[in-house]
Amino acid sequence: MSAAADLPLWAALLVALLLLLGSGLTLLGAIGLVRLDSFYKRVHSPTMGTTWGTGGILLASMLFFTMTEGRPVLHELLIAVFVTVTTPVTLMLLARAALYRDRTEQSPHVPTFTAVSERSSEVVENGKPGEPGEPG
Amino acid sequence: MSATILVWAVTISQLFLALAALCCVVRLFRGPRAQDRVLALDALYVCAMLILLTFGIRTGSTLYFEAALVIALLGFVSTSALAKFLMRGEVIE
């Protein structure tokens, strides 16, 4: 850490705060991944790590290299944009695959194909949904 | 002073991220079904990427950024391929 010695104090404090925020939120998301009890609950918890976890550490890295190199270093934005765009895509693909697998095995915790199609035709006929949202 | 603050912050955040990766590994081994394991692998990719970024701050070299970018790309590709495999039984049809 030779370059860190000439960092001003406010920048060091801000970098430290952003680092701890990001890593703490990532740890909370990972604990949720272990502790939550169904897949459809667990699929939400790693997103804490991919939103503010990644965001905090990337902001800390941007601030650190901008201060030490004396010029704007913005290439961390590339990772930030990429992670923000791809995480919903992958998790939605994964959740749809899990829903498909659970429905074909006729697991009791998710609505079946027929229940969903009956409910959607009911919506078309009556103009209002019978149940407030489907679980999962 | 600022060097001390940064050393402590980077060390603590690396500890947190290592614990997060450990939690992901626990879910990877324990996960009752395949989709749980894929989800844990995706979270493990993110943890590894963040650990590399904190190594970049610790050493002051921007080289680790490239490795983190490659990990982010490979994580997206591998997770979507595995999700496609779980959905359809093959990746490219």
From TrEMBL, chain B:
Keyword Cell membrane: yes
Membrane topology, from the record: Multi-pass membrane protein
InterPro entries assigned: MrpF/PhaF-like
Keywords: Antiport, Cell membrane, Ion transport, Membrane, Transmembrane, Transmembrane helix, Transport
Similarity field: Belongs to the CPA3 antiporters (TC 2.A.63) subunit F family.
Subcellular location field: Cell membrane
Spans through the membrane: 6-26, 38-57, 63-87
Highest taxon of source: Bacteria
Protein's organism: Aquamicrobium terrae
Protein name per its UniProtKB record: Multicomponent K+:H+ antiporter subunit F
Transmembrane recorded as keyword: yes
